[in-house]
């Protein structure tokens, strides 16, 4: 009997890569893609596979490491989320020209919605700009199959190929067969060819022409051709509404298929699913436009298919306003689109559940909360440039004023400094924050730039010794790689000094008074005549990381008679373990949430919170 298992979409993608005999995968964590490399590591151990896996320092590094493996003829994958692809855009554009040798799959997981991203950009558009084929799976099993197909197509045509799953595919589960995982036997062999691998602009023109020829051949590849998934709908007299059809790709096609079935229209409206939305074959475009009068395009998030169908009178989609131009295409949204396009009565409105909402907040006992509260106390009325990570939730505490992209907090702090300095206006205190993983990802070049341009501000590196937001992946400061093998440990303090920072201090935000003193001293350095950038490293492990030892005494917090229910601690510190009971009523401590860090004792201005030691 064939073994079967229910796999997460990201686990299915990992399995597909191994079935395609990938020998290397490099990634930077980011939701919804983070579980793919973790699943690869688990499969590597289970099947005793000889392959290199790494959490790279950022997406550009991940792309370039995996690409070099492909240059030796071995199959590779690089994995990231859609905003990470922006970081890797530079090598991507060039790699499309040079091409590859071994199959090279770029997995860029998109987040329509967006659920956990700064943007809901469509990676398929970047594939179009870069001129590489892109697969758009609609289910975990398709994602597994397309991972294999993308690898084979890449190697056949010597071009990077993108696999673009979305959140609903990455995090859905599906029952599927488990087949034997092969052990790759391709030996590395790098064949020197400077005209290709190190091409100068003259040769790049030649490579561009070759790239266009590859795309034309790929568009005609029968393995990637559009599929009519309800062939019976092509029968005589079944095209209602004057020869109408639906074309789509990705998970929205799964929603549409179910809804057409529920509406009794599955065998009456031709439905085309596109495994590869770019590049479309010319023959398909011509047949589609000559066969139908009205064509509805369903795709997330941008009009990639629509842009390739140039008859504006027949095409209905995002560019015509028939499909929303932003947001996830949830089943209820798709039903409304289909009913409107097919001339059916609108469906009854769906009322959202009336559950009380609660805004996201840092965990109870999170050391970042203590650091943010100290920053607010040290630099009242300051400017607080923030960065990407769970510490973005410092926004709720009033200590994050800007969030742009990875590493931007440092560059923006420098920008604010130069703006006020050049205008000769009173300089407000500027205190930027960045996480340890983000500092390694994009903060180091920004810090070098700030120092050499003469900026002055305080930078707090919130070092919780892990990449907490995406599942506790290791940072370069851990001293171990993905396989748990000891590797050189990088020091944030030494890196800051190497960037030219002369004031570097490290403190524990749980040791609140001392940490506050460090911040004030850093502020004095930044504001002194001979000062500059001052770095304070707020070092305390993430409470949710079970690999970190618990090395501090747990305190039991008690509320005494001085508490008059002012709720200052609730509003300004926002620890979930502090529960208000109403106006002028003393707060209560939720012992099921309280971590016993004791920082809240330093927060209450009335001395109403007391800590009692409970030992280690």
TrEMBL record:
<dbReference type="Pfam" id="PF00037">
    <property type="entry name" value="Fer4"/>
</dbReference>
<protein>
    <recommendedName>
        <fullName>Indolepyruvate oxidoreductase subunit IorA</fullName>
        <ecNumber>1.2.7.8</ecNumber>
    </recommendedName>
</protein>
<keyword id="KW-0813">Transport</keyword>
<dbReference type="InterPro" id="IPR045025">
    <property type="entry name" value="HACL1-like"/>
</dbReference>
<dbReference type="InterPro" id="IPR002880">
    <property type="entry name" value="Pyrv_Fd/Flavodoxin_OxRdtase_N"/>
</dbReference>
<dbReference type="GO" id="GO:0044281">
    <property type="term" value="P:small molecule metabolic process"/>
</dbReference>
<dbReference type="GO" id="GO:0046872">
    <property type="term" value="F:metal ion binding"/>
</dbReference>
<feature type="binding site">
    <location>
        <position position="563"/>
    </location>
    <ligand>
        <name>[4Fe-4S] cluster 1</name>
    </ligand>
</feature>
<keyword id="KW-0479">Metal-binding</keyword>
<keyword id="KW-0249">Electron transport</keyword>
<dbReference type="Pfam" id="PF02775">
    <property type="entry name" value="TPP_enzyme_C"/>
</dbReference>
<feature type="domain" description="4Fe-4S ferredoxin-type">
    <location>
        <begin position="585"/>
        <end position="614"/>
    </location>
</feature>
<feature type="binding site">
    <location>
        <position position="594"/>
    </location>
    <ligand>
        <name>[4Fe-4S] cluster 2</name>
    </ligand>
</feature>
<dbReference type="GO" id="GO:0051539">
    <property type="term" value="F:4 iron, 4 sulfur cluster binding"/>
</dbReference>
<dbReference type="GO" id="GO:0043805">
    <property type="term" value="F:indolepyruvate ferredoxin oxidoreductase activity"/>
</dbReference>
<dbReference type="GO" id="GO:0030976">
    <property type="term" value="F:thiamine pyrophosphate binding"/>
</dbReference>
<feature type="binding site">
    <location>
        <position position="569"/>
    </location>
    <ligand>
        <name>[4Fe-4S] cluster 1</name>
    </ligand>
</feature>
<keyword id="KW-0408">Iron</keyword>
<feature type="binding site">
    <location>
        <position position="604"/>
    </location>
    <ligand>
        <name>[4Fe-4S] cluster 1</name>
    </ligand>
</feature>
<keyword id="KW-0004">4Fe-4S</keyword>
<dbReference type="InterPro" id="IPR029061">
    <property type="entry name" value="THDP-binding"/>
</dbReference>
<dbReference type="InterPro" id="IPR011766">
    <property type="entry name" value="TPP_enzyme_TPP-bd"/>
</dbReference>
<feature type="domain" description="4Fe-4S ferredoxin-type">
    <location>
        <begin position="553"/>
        <end position="583"/>
    </location>
</feature>
<comment type="function">
    <text>Catalyzes the ferredoxin-dependent oxidative decarboxylation of arylpyruvates.</text>
</comment>
<keyword id="KW-0411">Iron-sulfur</keyword>
<dbReference type="InterPro" id="IPR017721">
    <property type="entry name" value="IorA"/>
</dbReference>
<feature type="binding site">
    <location>
        <position position="575"/>
    </location>
    <ligand>
        <name>[4Fe-4S] cluster 2</name>
    </ligand>
</feature>
<keyword id="KW-0560">Oxidoreductase</keyword>
<dbReference type="InterPro" id="IPR017900">
    <property type="entry name" value="4Fe4S_Fe_S_CS"/>
</dbReference>
<feature type="binding site">
    <location>
        <position position="597"/>
    </location>
    <ligand>
        <name>[4Fe-4S] cluster 2</name>
    </ligand>
</feature>
<dbReference type="InterPro" id="IPR017896">
    <property type="entry name" value="4Fe4S_Fe-S-bd"/>
</dbReference>
<feature type="binding site">
    <location>
        <position position="566"/>
    </location>
    <ligand>
        <name>[4Fe-4S] cluster 1</name>
    </ligand>
</feature>
<keyword id="KW-0670">Pyruvate</keyword>
<dbReference type="Pfam" id="PF01855">
    <property type="entry name" value="POR_N"/>
</dbReference>
<feature type="binding site">
    <location>
        <position position="600"/>
    </location>
    <ligand>
        <name>[4Fe-4S] cluster 2</name>
    </ligand>
</feature>
């Amino acid at each position: 009997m064939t073994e079967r298992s229910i796999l997460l979409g990201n686990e299915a993608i990992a399995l597909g890569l191994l079935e395609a005999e990938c020998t290397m995968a490099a990634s930077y964590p980011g939701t919804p893609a983070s579980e793919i490399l973790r699943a690869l590591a688990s499969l590597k151990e289970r099947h005793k596979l000889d392959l290199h896996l790494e959490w790279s320092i950022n997406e550009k590094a991940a792309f370039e490491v995996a690409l070099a493996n492909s240059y030796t003829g071995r199959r590779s994958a690089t994995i990231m989320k859609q905003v990470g692809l922006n970081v890797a855009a530079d090598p991507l554009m060039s790699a499309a020209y040079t091409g590859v040798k071994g199959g090279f799959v770029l997995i860029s997981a998109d987040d329509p919605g967006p659920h956990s991203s700064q943007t809901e950009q469509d990676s398929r558009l970047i594939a179009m700009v870069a001129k590489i084929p892109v697969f758009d799976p609609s289910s975990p099993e398709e994602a597994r199959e397309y991972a294999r197909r993308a690898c084979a197509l890449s190697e056949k045509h010597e071009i990077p190929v993108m696999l673009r799953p979305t959140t609903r595919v990455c995090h859905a589960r599906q029952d599927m067969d488990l087949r034997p995982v092969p052990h790759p036997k391709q030996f590395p062999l790098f064949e020197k060819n400077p005209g290709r691998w190190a091409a100068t602009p003259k040769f790049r023109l030649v490579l561009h022409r070759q790239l266009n020829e590859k795309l034309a051949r790929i568009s005609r590849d029968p393995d990637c051709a559009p599929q009519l998934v309800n062939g019976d709908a092509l029968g005589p007299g079944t095209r209602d509404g004057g020869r109408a059809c639906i074309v789509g790709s990705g998970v929205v096609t799964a929603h549409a298929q179910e809804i057409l079935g529920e509406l009794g229209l599955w065998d009456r409206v031709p439905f085309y699913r596109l495994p590869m939305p770019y590049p479309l074959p010319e023959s398909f475009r011509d047949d589609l436009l000559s066969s139908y009068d009205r064509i509805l395009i369903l795709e997330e998030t941008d009009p990639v298919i629509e842009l390739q169908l140039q008859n504006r009178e027949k095409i209905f989609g995002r560019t015509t306003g028939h499909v929303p131009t932003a947001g996830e295409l949830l089943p209820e949204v798709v039903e409304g689109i289909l009913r409107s396009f097919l001339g059916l009565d609108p469906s009854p409105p769906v009322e959202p559940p009336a559950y009380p909402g609660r805004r996201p907040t840092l965990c109870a006992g999170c050391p970042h909360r203590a650091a943010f509260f100290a920053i607010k106390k040290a630099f009242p009325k300051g400017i607080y440039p923030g960065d990407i990570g769970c510490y973005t939730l410092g926004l709720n505490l009033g200590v994050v004023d800007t969030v742009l992209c990875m590493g931007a907090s440092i560059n923006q702090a420098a920008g604010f400094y130069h703006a006020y300095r050049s205008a000769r206006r009173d300089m407000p205190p500027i205190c930027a924050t960045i996480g340890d993983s983000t500092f390694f990802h994009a903060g180091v070049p920004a810090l070098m730039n700030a120092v050499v341009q003469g900026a002055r501000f305080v930078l707090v590196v919130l070092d919780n010794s892990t990449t907490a937001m995406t599942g506790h992946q290791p940072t370069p400061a851990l001293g171990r790689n993905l396989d748990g093998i000891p590797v050189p440990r990088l020091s944030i303090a030494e890196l800051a000094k190497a960037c030219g920072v002369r004031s570097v201090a490290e403190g524990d935000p749980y040791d609140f008074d001392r940490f506050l003193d460090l911040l004030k001293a850093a502020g004095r350095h930044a504001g002194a005549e001979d000062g500059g950038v001052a770095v304070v490293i707020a070092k305390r492990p993430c409470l949710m990381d079970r690999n970190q030892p618990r090395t501090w005494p747990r305190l039991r917090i008690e509320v005494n008679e001085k508490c008059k229910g002012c709720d200052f601690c609730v509003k300004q510190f926002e620890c979930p373990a502090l529960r208000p009971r109403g106006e002028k009523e003393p707060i209560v401590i939720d012992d099921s949430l309280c971590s016993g860090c004791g920082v809240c004792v330093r927060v209450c201005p009335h001395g109403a919170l007391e800590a009692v030691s409970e030992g280690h």
